[in-house]
Amino acid sequence: MTGLLLQLAHRLLASATTPFYASADRFFLHLTILKQLSLYEDAYKLFTTEVGQKICETNLYCNEIRREIMVHLGKWKEEGERAQKLIVDNKYGSQIYVSQ
To answer: Is this prediction's pTM over 0.85?
Structure first.
């Protein structure tokens, strides 16, 4: 029953006139449904768009589900390189101390 309801929700979101990126909550909902249906490639296409990347950069929940989907796709190396770049660039302006 759950699978049927998730498929219905996916169909409704896919055919909606409001785009998936209208709000971070809607984007998170769409990614969550795609993850539950194991449609990881479709989710990957959504969060690799320019708008999807911006939402994931500013919303912790969306970024967390993005990381989970990357793990399911087996893209550990890409995710590691992304994390390393963020640390090296110190993108978020926080003080990062590396003990030696």
So the answer is: no
